[in-house]
Here is the input.
Amino acid sequence: MDQLLQNIALGLSVAFSLEGLLYCFIGVFLGTLVGVLPGIGIMATLAMLMPITFHLDPNYALIMLGGIYYGASYGGSTASILMNLPGTATSAVTGLDGYPMAKQGRAGQALFMTAIASFVGSIVGVILLAGFSVPLARVALRFGPHEYVALMLLGLIAASVIGSGRSIRSLIAVSLGLALGLVGLDLNSGVARFTFGQTVLFDGLPLVAVAIGLFGLPEIIASAGRAQTPKVQSDKIRLRDMLPTREDWRRSAMPMARGSGIGAFFGALPGTGGLVATFVSYAVERKMSKHPEQFGKGAIEGIAAPESANNAAVQSAFIPTLSLGIPGDPVMAIMLGVMMVHGILPGPTVIQDSPDLFWGLIVSFVVGNIMLLVLNLPLVGMWVKLLAIPYNYLFPVIVAFTCIGIYSVNYQIVDVFVLLAFGFLGLGMRALNFEVAPLLLGFVLGPMIEEYFRRSLIVSRGDLGSFFDRPIAGTILAITAAIVVWAIAVKARAALAGRGKPVSDNG
Here is the structure.
């Protein structure tokens, strides 16, 4: 206990220094701005600011970059809720229920609950990072390619229950997402697949362009064709009118707790992260809800769960990076690069060799999340007022900034065409009553499943039975099979119940 108190005191001395507070504020402010503006992306911002960090103390460099990371996770849901334009890929799930709430005139409550859920998830992630970094890293270290394949397969099965009772349509959407994930160079042979000779597609389709195209452009096109668009009354911008009701708090408490746990678990596993956690937490809440039909139409649980999961995953993603030197995602790879440039070797010894960096970073997470809460809650009214702007003035600006933001990521005009192509695809899926969320998950997990599946076959020399010989992988596959059987049983029971109903007088 004395050692823990000494470590916390060391972290406080770093995080509460003038430089620590300054760079923490710069990071969270830039992160929020990047998250709110769709299309710019965390990676582009970090890549541009990375050279600056080489001239900073490594403690403050990581504090600033970390602030950008979790600040963008806060801000990414704002555009997703107000205009159905996810500022980050992970915020696309929040828009499934956040945007319907905004159209119902409850944008303030949606943004307020988003800020609270994000804060709760972040604090849970920080606590796990501080108290269970080494034990959780050891668990993650036991996950080989077999376990990752099983885990991602479970994620795809969960995606099939995200759709509004349309399992077949969701399965088709997931399959389409898996097919789109094949675009690019084959990792083993280096052969270009489905690139049509375009070298710009060798790295695959850009994720942010795909996400915004599927979720944002269809709504822009649909809204532009309406004579009247939903607006929030200007006399309801006061803070007390934005406070969620007692029923909202009651319905959100357990989803926030479950989402935080799911996010912390997936964040600690290298290669998964917040995107998988948000989809899984949303699917879990939909299945556990007494009113699953409300999901996709403005259910407060559909905001609280994925937001807390996303932010818990962001914080716990530092566990394998700091404890093992294994980056869980591209953002963590940048963090790893900054540490190595400063001569710090990430791994199990980083806590002993650089305690000021480790504990200063942890305390800065708490400080930064408090800053974000203070920053975001007063700005809720300003964000909500965006809906008061006539849409015929607003949507050309949105389209222009979205295209500029997409182009600025890789400076490739083909990314803009990808955005437009997926915008029309999303519009077509919307017209045919298909869900786009399972497609996005299939697109993200497809290349990862392929990579880990090939690794597992190489390790086991092509023996598929090795998946069931490994206890963790076998258990996950058994759970996946149980979910499939349970879903089929529920469908069959519903079909039998429907046949047994008497025919009404109205036919």
